[in-house]
Structures are given as structure tokens and as C-alpha cells.
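assembly run, all chains below
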Amino acid sequence: MSRHWLMKSEPEEFSIDDLERVGTEPWSGVRNYQARNYMRDGMRIGDGILFYHSNCAEPGIVGLAEVRSEAYPDPSQFQRRSDYYDPASTPEAPRWLLVDVGFRRKLARTITLAELKDRDELGDFALTRRGNRLSVLPVTRTQWDFILALEKPRRGR
DNA sequence: GCCAACGTTGGC
DNA sequence: GCCAACGTTGGC
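ok done. output:
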């Protein structure tokens, strides 16, 4: 059973264009236990990912990606000079994991946060819950299908 | 275990 | 740049 996810990235750090260029990217730097648990316990190879640009002029979903690996230890937690270094983590008991994220395609247009907030059809959507800050969050099949249908608005609206 | 202080996220 | 809403840390 394939599942669906949303992953946030600041475009100034790593954008959908960056992902298109590299093809596959080890998603390092997740330092939140709930987000880690989604990657470790929820994600399977082939799962679909909504790629979201955060902390930018027009926050929103800009592309599609997919899970390309099982979760494995994030090497940056062991690198002293990395921003993501965690002195409390050891290779024997790594605290932080990542998955490889692969490019699928860019969307024809950005589906903005404002638009997503406006859509009651999305129901209880993790992205627009008050106070949400998770960078990795689940998307239901229904939400996935609805969001992709928004990509090309029908005429006459 | 409580909770104040602090750091981060991310929209605006 | 502001600030609300979190999560984490550490004293007690």
C-alpha cells in the first residue's frame, strides 16, 4: 500500500529545481522525533511526496517527489562541523534518520498555502493545522488526489 | 515531574 | 523584522 507525504524545504536552502538537478537527495537535517518516526515507521519506497516550499515569498506545493530508500542513519549527525551535528548520538545507536528523496516532476503552478487553507475539502490537513511546524507530515489519498486536481483548474470558475 | 527560559519554525 | 506556537533544556 502506497502512502503519501508532504515534505517542506526552504527554497533558498534546497528547492524543487535543486532536486530536479540532482535527481535524488539524502534528506538530511530532520531533527524532530515525530518527523523521524514518520520516515522510519511510515515511509516505504515508492511513496509519493508533495514538495513544499516554506519560508519564502509564496509558500506552497511546487512539485512531486517520491521516497527512494528506507530510512537510514543521517551521516550529518556524526560530523562535528555540520550544523546538524548531534554530540549525543553514536553510530551504535544513531538518533536521527533520513530517506533518499527522488524527483518526479514540477507542478504546472504553485498550489499556495493560502489556497490550501481555503479548501474545506481537505478536511483535517496536517499542513494547515494551527501551530503546525513539522517538516515531514502525512497526506491522505483523498487529500493527495484533491490537491493534484487543483493543479489544472477547470474553466468557468 | 514541573515549569520557566530559551531556541526554532515559518507565516505575515 | 515581528511574533505566535511549538519543542527542548535544565534547575529544582
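The two ends of chain A are 35 Å apart (CA to CA).

The mean pLDDT of chain A is 92.

not gonna interpret more than that til we talk
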